[in-house]
TrEMBL record:
Residues 272-334, 402-436 are annotated as: Disordered. Residues 341-374 form a coiled coil. InterPro entries: Nop53/GLTSCR2 (IPR011687). GO terms for molecular function: 5S rRNA binding. It comes from the Eukaryota. It comes from Ditylum brightwellii. This is Ribosome biogenesis protein NOP53. Keywords: Coiled coil, Nucleus, Ribosome biogenesis. One of its GO terms (cellular component) is nucleolus. Belongs to the NOP53 family.
Amino acid sequence: MGKKKNQTVRAKRIKAAAEALEEQQAERIVSKTVESKPNQELFVIDTDAASNHALSFIPKEDRTSRKKKFDKQHVSDVSKVKRLIDTLGKDGVEKLAKEGAAAATKRRTRMRRTAGTARTNFDLWGGGDAASGGGNNGKKKRNILPVMTGQSSAAGTAPMTLLATDDATNAITNDPQEQIAHNIDKDAIHPSKVQLSNKVVKIRTLTKSLSKPTVPIELAHGGQSYNPDENQHQDVIGEALSIELKREEALAYRKTPISNGLSKETLAIMVHSSDEEDSDSDDDSDDEEKNNDSFQPRLKSKVINRENKKTRAQRNKQKRTREEHASIQQRKKQKTFLHEVNEAKLRAKEIKQEERLQKERAEYLKRVQEEKRKEPLGLNFLHKLSDVDPIHVPSLPVALTSELGRKEKDDDDDENETVPTATTSLRKVRPKGSLLTDRSQSMISRNMVNPKRGANKFIVQGKKRTMKGGKGREYLLI
């Protein structure tokens, strides 16, 4: 092994020496070719330095030749001139050229004015004649007019827009009735005559398609009349009673405390535990006194329990039992899996049934949402408000049976017995409810006015905080 290793090293050395000899031989050949040549071939003397220096620089172009180069007409310029001659004619082109030359040679004048001598060409109030310089820079008079759109809008914003027109009469047709209305109020424009942008038209179309129908004034129930029918009157009394019951429940819930204190059982346990602690503390103090009198240190001894120690045979038996139990559980899992595979059809049937129920439920929810969306705003607003704020909801205005001059029907009365009519007249009817409250709640339910927030807050003494205006509070009532 060692002999073979020395042979490889020797071969590498021989190869390196041969490469070095080849390089030396090549250098000798190159040097001989240079050394054999005379100096005239190796070195060149520059005898015409001035001419060579002049040729090394590029001569600059003359300014006149450069100007002539840029003055040459381009092919596109020639085509433009021909097009002008065809459209304007020879006389028109000559006139246009003269005007351009005059504008190019005309000297620009600078306006210098002293303070206080400048004449204003803009009237702040839009008065005066435009020709005399008193108008708005010679432009036509424009009016900013409020226009009622008549479209449903977001809550808190009045359905109106501001329109800039040259004159209010331009938007009015020659109809005599419209002309009379325009003469009465010159600042009003009919919404159908207003030219709106495409963006506003799209927004209004989308808002109109998504807006809910509204009922400005809800018709009174038949049982709210001064001489109502018996059944209708009882129905309205039942509705009013349901609102009042919700109010009573809310008030009772608000008055009930969060907790009624500790129960009797808890108090008894706490008292018993405190007595035991006192007795234990007394016993501990007595034991400490006895121990202090006769103190004897005790040595700790480790108790070795050898009764529960099992033999090797018992341990092997437990091991075999655990292995058998594991194999039984494995066989049970395999059996359950095979049983589930056989019941694939039953599982597929259950899945289809669940999907059908989910689809029916989704259709039902969609139908309910569609009905809710089509439900007009402004109907039964008192019942809806009683679900949100049962304490502050107004009462449903309805006359009681005693106020109508009727006697309440007992169970012993005959069913066919007729109830006497009201003895009171229309002049003696007592009005109930508030028209202002009714209108305000109706406008809130129709999203025309925002409800007042923070009126029922519990105000405490401290730093005064400013109420910041929210979105939609800056509404206008027209």
